[in-house]
Design a protein that fits this description.
The complex is a heterodimer of chains A (315) and B (298). Chain A is mainly α. Chain A has helices at 2-29, 34-39, 45-55, 61-73, 87-123, 128-142, 145-159, 175-208, 212-219, 224-246, 248-261, 267-276, 280-308. With 298 residues, chain B is mostly helical. Classes of the chains: A mainly alpha (315), B mainly alpha (298).
Chain lengths: 315, 298
């Protein structure tokens, strides 16, 4: 068990290293000379050279990479030359919580609505309920989220004026106002995810409900809710955790677009703005953060399998 | 493969008539959604191919007398802030959607095939390294990956194709590897090896044909994802540059006018949503029909 977990962790560490090498090469492959960008139009050869040495750009690439990785781990991510602030502060302390809040709200909403919908459509298989849930799940998973966001802004923001169409209020400062501002972005981001959860829940529960132990539970006279939610859902949990965990990347992907639609100052907006203003250090930080987030979640999903399903416990 | 062939033969064995229409009707009976999805997709393809004949105006023609006009007899879907006919731009935009969708999937599938084959055939440290590389690609959401490539490559239709194509390598490589491992374990591959057939010949004659088909199915399904990612890039202002009639770009241009003239975003958005939904229905149909792993999933 321990050996298996260690192997998984080692694998994850390798992937993390590759992601860091990829982010490092973003900076190296980016067009333009970083020293020239810092010095501006006019500079002497000497000052160019001395800045190169000062930044360590004259050293071999592997050495530069290790040096960069060390500083990255210590939170020294460089300084943005647009806002003149440390990138760590901007990216990790300010932007990341916005994206995580949005993602958590969307995920919560998707689970809260998606699971019951999936259960209803599995239990009432081949009824109008089921068809409606299937139609929703099909439309929801294919619908482009940024367009959905614009439609929501148009309907609820502009026409009815029910919800604010932009801005972020941290829910840890003012919970209700935060949720109020988060409502439309969270709905936008959660829709494709919700559709997926409905699909997975239904497909797996339909299969589980045909198993003999469900018939046995029914025969023992256990109430229907217990049969479905305790005996049935416990076995749907595994695929659900897998999907929810592995689709975190998709959630972040959607967050980039949702943040732009609703002008939320999260990682997605940060990366987009950074690409437009050619701030490669910020792009790099954004790539590193999303990569680490996804990889670490995948690791947690992997490690949770043996906990959720005793049959998967490696001997 | 043998198993798959049998099951297909079983299905088709029923009332087989030589007439093509009859065969198609058999295929589609009881699958009305699939038929509608396929028809909508075909309509979009038709619009893309025959855009100059179908579209009432040129995509960049500016009717300065009718700026931001609502849908009318002159402009069926209205005009944007430059007086460009939205219907015409959407029709021309279909070309870009398909061009980017097909080309980037082709890039992703080809590179994925190469990596997946290499990983599946060369075991040991090479495989481990390649798969960790694929894990790293998969760790970055496709849009963020594409944005990263765009930041290096710059903007434009060709750059978007490369960026989206690279971002799609991961999933293709992973499925190809899984298929290769499965085929390798089959008796006929082992037999060929024991008979002293050349290794490359085994790959070419026995492994590749069994890997290509599921890859092609996957590629078809992923076209909608490529279109979604590329339109997302353009929506962010990082993809195709104006005045290209790209849907994502058009949606983003209309965003500023959403409270007064909602159709500038609405028309291209509706086209994008419609095509993506149709493609996903078609993709589901193809998957259900051809992917043996999916058949048990109801």
């Amino acid at each position: 068990m321990l050996r298996w977990a260690l192997a998984k962790i080692l694998q994850t560490a390798a992937v993390l290293l590759i992601v860091s090498a990829v982010s490092f090469s973003v900076l190296k492959l980016a067009p333009g000379d970083p020293v020239e960008l810092m010095l501006g139009e006019e500079y002497s050869k000497e000052s160019h050279q001395s800045l190169m040495v000062q930044l360590g750009l004259d050293r071999p690439l592997p050495e530069q990479y290790i040096d960069w990785l060390g500083r990255f781990i210590h939170g020294d991510w460089g300084t943005s030359f647009v806002s003149r602030t440390p990138i760590f502060q901007y990216a990790f302390v300010e932007a990341l919580p916005v994206t995580l809040t949005l993602a958590a709200a969307a995920l919560g909403l998707a689970l809260l609505v998606g699971i019951p919908l999936g259960v209803i459509s599995a239990v009432r298989k081949d009824t109008a309920w089921d068809a409606a849930a299937a139609a929703f799940s099909l439309t929801g998973s294919a619908f482009p989220s940024f367009y959905l966001g614009i439609l929501l802004i148009w309907m609820f923001g502009v026409s009815f004026g029910l919800f604010p169409t932009m801005g972020f209020v941290p829910p840890w400062k003012d919970f209700w106002d935060g949720m109020y501002h988060l409502a439309m972005p969270a709905i936008t981001l959660s829709t494709p995810f919700m559709a997926l959860i409905v699909r997975i829940t239904r497909a797996n529960l339909v299969e589980v409900l045909e198993q003999p132990y469900i018939a046995a539970a029914r025969a023992r006279g256990e109430p229907a809710w217990r049969v479905i939610w305790v005996h049935g859902m416990r076995n749907v949990l595994m695929p659900l955790v897998t999907i929810v965990g592995l689709q975190l990347g998709t959630l972040l992907h959607g967050a980039v677009l949702t943040e732009t639609v609703f002008s939320l100052p999260g990682i997605g907006r940060m990366i987009t703005d950074a690409v437009l203003s050619r701030e490669y250090l910020v792009v790099q930080a954004g790539v590193m953060m999303t990569g680490c987030l996804v990889i670490l979640t995948n690791l947690m999903v992997d490690l949770s399998y043996p906990v959720l399903d005793p049959r998967l416990r490696p001997r | 493969m043998a198993v798959r062939d049998l099951s297909l033969a079983d299905r088709d064995a029923a009332p087989r008539s030589p007439a093509l229409l009859r065969v198609l009707a058999d295929q589609f009976r009881g699958r009305p959604f699939f038929v509608v999805g396929a028809l909508v997709t075909l309509a979009f393809l038709f619009a893309a191919v025959f855009a100059p004949w179908v579209a009432p105006y040129a995509p960049d023609f500016q009717d300065s007398d009718h700026l931001m006009s609502p849908p009318s007899a002159l402009h069926w879907c209205g005009t944007d802030s430059f007086g460009q006919d939205l219907l015409s731009r959407v029709i021309y935009g279909t070309r870009y959607a398909f061009l980017i969708g097909f080309s980037s999937v082709a890039i992703g599938a080809t590179a994925g095939l190469a990596i997946g084959l290499a990983a599946g055939l060369l075991q040991g440290p090479v495989e481990w390294g390649l798969m960790r590389f694929v894990d790293a690609i998969l760790a970055l959401p496709s849009l963020i990956m594409a944005i990263t490539f765009i930041s290096i490559l710059g903007q434009g239709v060709d750059k978007v194709i490369y960026a989206v194509g690279f971002a799609m390598i991961g999933p293709f490589a992973r499925t190809v590897r899984a298929d290769v491992l499965q085929v390798r374990a089959q008796a006929f591959v082992e037999a060929a090896g024991l008979m002293g057939v050349d290794r490359l010949r085994i790959v070419w004659r026995h492994i590749l044909p069994n890997v290509i088909f599921p890859l092609a199915v996957q590629a078809t399904i992923r076209i909608s994802e490529a279109i979604l990612v590329s339109s997302g890039l353009s929506f962010l202002g990082l993809g195709v540059v104006p005045p290209t009639p790209d849907w994502g770009l058009m949606i983003s241009e209309g965003r500023a006018f959403i409270s007064i003239v909602p159709w500038i975003s609405g028309v291209p958005g509706a086209a994008l949503a419609l095509l993506l939904i149709a493609l996903s229905i078609v993709g589901d149909g193809i998957r259900e029909r051809f992917d043996p792993k999916m058949r048990t999933n109801r």
